[in-house]
Amino acid sequence: xxxxxxxxxxxxxxxxxxxxxxxxxxxxxxxxxxxxxxxxxxxxxxxxxxxxxxxxxxxxxxxxxxxxxxxxxxxxxxxxxxxxxxxxxxxxxxxxxxxxxxxxxxxxxxxxxxxxxxxxxxxxxxxxxxxxxxxxxxxxxxxxxxxxxxxxxxxxxxxxxxxxxxxxxxxxxxxxxxxxxxxxxxxxxxxxxxxxxxxxxxxxxxxxxxxxxxxxxxxxxxxxxxxxxxxxxxxxxxxxxxxxxxxxxxxxxxxxxxxxxxxxxxxxxxxxxxxxxxxxxxxxxxxxxxxxxxxxxxxxxxxxxxxxxxxxxxxxxxxxxxxxxxxxxxxx
Length: 332
Known about the structure:
Layout: E1 9-11, H1 20-31, E2 39-45, H2 52-56, E3 64-71, E4 80-86, H3 94-105, E5 109-114, H4 131-146, E6 151-161, H5 163-170, H6 174-181, E7 190-194, E8 200-201, E9 209-214, H7 222-235, E10 239-244, E11 258-265, E12 271-274, E13 280-282, E14 287-288, H8 290-299, E15 302-307, H9 311-329
Parallel strand pairs: 1-10, 4-5, 4-6, 6-7, 7-9, 8-12, 9-10
Antiparallel strand pairs: 2-3, 3-5, 11-15, 12-13, 13-14
Helix pairs in contact: 1-3, 4-5, 4-6
């Protein structure tokens, strides 16, 4: 893995997935007989087509009934730290089960949110779920865990992958958090984002962020992620961007490489937007007025991308995440 010096930057999914319950039962069995059974927990969230302005202005209603699976670790005693897990467009897949095991083995509870099945969505209809609705899903899941006496409300983090990475990342933005949970509604203690988009920033809650992206990820623009990390660090948020030279999209999975010529990609998109002011600019420094911003957002996406697992980068990222969680949650 190549390494390049950058300020504040360290270098370092389309079939319908199995049912969540069966996957987590398997994960529980893998932990051994001392592991607790996964618990199905229902909660309410917003309609899948909710947009950002509706969320910010409090004009959304909790019309959708979602659920997640809570898995308590086999070791340690309550109250446990916990991680909310947000899936990619592939839905709940084997890679999510791997992360449940990794997190539980650290003595951390996991709460896997299913944003698709309760809404009748799948990988083929993932675009019907807006990114802002996914952020609300993550924050509602935080609220569920905060109310559980077995969970340490001060030590709840979010981890997400691709589409879910946007939810994990943007739930750090104070404007989203306050709109969904209220001014005193608590916050995530940390955020981990795998190969998600980086085109938005805002004032954050101050919780640390760890993000991963690969230089062969042809869904996204790596340089936009670098600039995003620089901006957030300059604002005072501790964000570490880990860039793996040669890693593709979905590198932490065990999937064979797939080429998808018809899927939308954003690798030519070089725009960042401040969600506090709605100002937008390009990597070259040029600012865009609202009309230019909307036109650019509609025209910069392209078609065609690939994805697949790579065991080298998967192993490195898992170790990085373990160290990050141990440090932030004070694990011994």
